[in-house]
């Protein structure tokens, strides 16, 4: 079959439709193929002619390597899934079919009943309408689908819900709490929209509302100064580590946003740092202080390796620093810095919490704090108002003007 000239979005939709008709499950496509296609679509544009796209180069810019020429056994699970997804897209564009066949039980152990499928589809629409990120939506749907496979909607009872939730004991505490929260929100949705029994809510353990939550970990100014002093003088990349910890301390950036920071995010003429948060897609712009600007300049000019990557923070081999590497680096620095942890959390997010409390102690209003931290709702920020730390100030750091 001769290659068809087709727009990227239309090709993705046609490929997906063909796979559905051939028996690929909704979960397989939603979790294994669509996320990778969507990254490609956003990169090159929906209306771009697929035949004019340099697929290998585009995919390399997304995943940081040529996943088509790399030995499959050296690919991560995500990279392997991406390769499978793009091979399917390229093959369908060339032949109108995909040679890979659906395999039963690959993504979900049990099929869903008709009623469970209807409710899951409705909940997917509800999540998409809330403006959540693709990753959050995908993870929520995965948790709900597993639940519905074990507790079909037609036969759901408080007892089988309790039995299912009790099985979370095999997970780590944070994972179990996340699953319970996802299921509790799903239960509330079902009660309001799908007519499921109200009493199944009792099967989910209650979770703290944000308004009543407290910040678990705060570090004093002296402790943060010790941390910055340690990272600036230890390790193989001290300038990089100092700059990124400083950005978290002064601007409250999340690990994901530190990792995604690009060279174009810094406007040296205006002296600003602009990002689009990965968590809620909300744009943020901060005014660089002399301290943060100098730290970034020192790293970029004196330590950052030459690389084709556009990201600010790189590993020593010139590839992008992954977000999952930021918090462990900070945690290790906390441990080695001589700071007495006393069982406190010591990842990168604890520095963000400390910034919020510093602003609160300085009598900064809650709306301004919410704006600085990039919260999508002031209700999220109000959790910080529960903390009374009157003397918490980031001495030694230049706190920018957030007005």
Q: Please, could you describe this protein's structure?
A:
The chain has 403 residues and is mainly α. It has three domains: 88 residues; 94 residues, DNA polymerase, domain 1 (Orthogonal Bundle); 166 residues, Intergrase catalytic core (hpI Integrase, Chain A). It is 52% helix and 3% strand. It is built from 16 helices and three strands.
Write the layout of secondary structure elements.
Blueprint lengths: L7 H14 L4 H19 L10 H9 L13 H19 L18 H16 L4 H17 L7 H9 L6 H21 L27 H11 L6 H14 L3 H6 L5 E2 L4 E5 L6 E5 L2 H13 L20 H14 L11 H14 L4 H8 L4 H4 L22
Antiparallel strand pairs: 1-2, 2-3
What features would you highlight for this structure?
single chain; 403 residues; mainly alpha; DNA polymerase, domain 1; hpI Integrase, Chain A; 3 domains; three-stranded antiparallel sheet; 52% helix; disordered C terminus
């Amino acid at each position: 079959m001769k290659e068809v000239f087709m727009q990227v979005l239309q090709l993705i939709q046609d490929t997906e439709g063909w796979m559905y008709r051939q028996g690929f499950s909704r979960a397989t496509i939603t979790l294994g193929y669509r996320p990778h296609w969507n990254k490609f679509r956003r990169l090159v544009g929906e209306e771009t002619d697929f035949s004019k796209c340099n697929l290998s180069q585009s995919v390399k810019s997304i995943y940081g390597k040529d996943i088509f020429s790399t030995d499959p056994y050296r690919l991560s699970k995500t990279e392997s899934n991406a390769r499978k997804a793009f091979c399917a897209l390229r093959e369908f564009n060339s032949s109108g079919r995909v040679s890979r066949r659906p395999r039963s039980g690959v993504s979900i152990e049990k099929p869903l009943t008709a009623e469970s499928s209807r409710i899951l589809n409705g909940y997917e629409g509800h999540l998409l309408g809330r403006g959540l990120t693709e990753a959050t939506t995908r993870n929520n749907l995965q948790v709900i689908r597993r639940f519905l496979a074990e507790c079909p909607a037609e036969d759901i009872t408080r007892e089988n819900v309790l039995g299912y939730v009790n099985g979370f004991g095999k997970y780590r505490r944070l994972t179990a709490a996340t699953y319970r929260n996802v299921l509790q929100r799903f239960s509330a949705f079902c009660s309001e929209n799908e007519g499921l029994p109200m009493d199944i809510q009792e099967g989910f353990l209650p979770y703290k509302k944000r308004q009543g939550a407290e910040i678990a970990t705060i570090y004093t100014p002296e402790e943060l100064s010790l941390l910055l002093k340690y990272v600036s003088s230890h390790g193989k990349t001290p300038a990089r580590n100092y700059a990124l910890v400083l950005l978290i301390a002064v601007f409250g950036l999340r690990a994901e946003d530190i990792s995604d920071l690009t060279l174009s995010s810094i406007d040296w003429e205006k002296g600003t740092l602009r990002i689009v948060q990965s968590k809620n897609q909300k744009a943020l712009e901060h005014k660089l202080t002399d301290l943060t600007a100098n730290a970034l300049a020192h790293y970029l000019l004196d330590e950052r390796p030459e690389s084709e990557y556009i990201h600010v923070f790189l590993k020593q081999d010139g590839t992008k620093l992954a977000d999952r590497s930021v918090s462990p680096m900070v945690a290790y620095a906390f441990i080695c810095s001589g700071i007495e942890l006393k069982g406190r959390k010591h990842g990168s997010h604890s520095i963000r919490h400390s910034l919020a409390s510093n602003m609160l102690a300085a009598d900064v209003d809650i709306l301004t704090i919410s704006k600085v931290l990039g919260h999508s709702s002031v209700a999220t920020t109000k959790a910080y108002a529960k903390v009374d730390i009157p003397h918490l100030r980031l001495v030694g750091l230049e706190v920018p003007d957030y007005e």
